[in-house]
Amino acid sequence: MITANFLLLGVFIVLLALGTPIAVALGLAGAAAVAVGLDLNTVAMVGSNTYASVAKYPLIAIPLFVLTGMVFERSGVAARLVTFAQSIVGPRRGGLAVVATMVCLIMGGMSGSGPADAAAVATIMIPTMLKAGYPREFSASVIAASASTAILIPPSIALIVYSILVPGVDLRALFAAGLFPGLLAGLAVILPTIFLSRRHDFGAAEGSERPPFWPSLRGAVPGLMAPVIILGGLRSGLFTPTEAAAVAVAYGFFVGVFIYRSMRWSDAWRVLADSAETSAVILVIISLAGLFAWAGSTLGAFDHAAREILAFSGNGTVVLGLIMVLLLVCGMILDGVSIYLITLPLLVPIATAFGWNLTWFGVVMAMNIAIGQFTPPVAVNLIVTAKIARVTMEATVPWILWLVLCMGIAMLLVIMFPQIALWLPHVLGFRI
């Protein structure tokens, strides 16, 4: 068993180091460990366990929310949200950077994906910010950090995965618990952005015109209503999270085709194909990560690792600090969904042993992973924005460090004061 457990971890690490796709690394590591550590009858269950990992009704929400994000992106919602945010912020030093953060927060309530959020907003905002005098590196950094809030703002795809993997956690409570920490993370981006913009005189060429508020609001209302419909329907019990995703898709097509009239029915197949491709990648990772998790649980690898961590220190604060460091390192290398899939079989027993609230713990994990999404060397969000801004990732580091520090402080506040996350689901009557 010990050999199989080492094989599970060793094969996974070696394959990652060789640049193997995360899904392949997870699947091969799990299959190799099962083949060595278990009997032939158990090995025969590899295929069924891989399939069972994705044969779950709540997972239907993932491709539907991915489709929702793409529909709103293609229908011109982001551009109208930018105009609306500009009408609120107005022309000032750092104004466009604040607008970018506000739009990322709202778009996060539609797509649930940081990289998708980063791509949609960066495509619109970076050319505008460059004309106003913002450096490319600064613009890419701000949008990458702002887009990371999508993992917290409902409907977060990563939180959907968390609710499936952690028994007894209500997805509606998770969505509600992520809202205020997500807004706090957005504020943690806005404050240093304003400070740095004024200190370095960024945005000097923003101009003096402010878009009229009421026309901008009217144009943005259909987009702003999407998060309201999703959260309102969940709160009222009108539909489940999975049904909410289907409602959001139908609403997105209605907005794009009949209200904004920026989409034709002939565009639908392209949107469906692109979202299917993205969803397939996510679901393949989930299926093979399920095999990895099943292998680790069956072989006892996760239980053994959890006991070692608990034996290292009986102080919950020390253990939580170690977990946060581990997650931050993982976040620099992997995407949020993969991190949840790989680490939760190990971390949930530890959280249970210390009596941590699992809803709060899921949100804290999400905040930590959000920081990793824009922290080099990999930084999935920063890869997207740096490519659009045509800069190297290394050039963004002086600006990224400010944002990492401030969002780290925001995460520390949620750790110290759990009610920041738990107050809203408690008020709404969700089980936490």
Automatic annotation (TrEMBL):
The gene is siaT_41. Part of the tripartite ATP-independent periplasmic (TRAP) transport system. It comes from Oceanibacterium hippocampi. It is a multi-pass membrane protein. Keywords: Cell inner membrane, Cell membrane, Membrane, Transmembrane, Transmembrane helix, Transport. The complex comprises the extracytoplasmic solute receptor protein and the two transmembrane proteins. One of its GO terms (cellular component) is plasma membrane. The chain crosses the membrane at residues 59-82, 94-112, 141-165, 171-196, 244-260, 280-297, 309-334, 346-371, 399-424. GO terms for molecular function: transmembrane transporter activity. Belongs to the TRAP transporter large permease family. Its main location: membrane. It is found in: Cell inner membrane. This is TRAP transporter large permease protein. Residues 9-420 form the TRAP C4-dicarboxylate transport system permease DctM subunit domain. InterPro entries: DctM, TRAP_DctM.
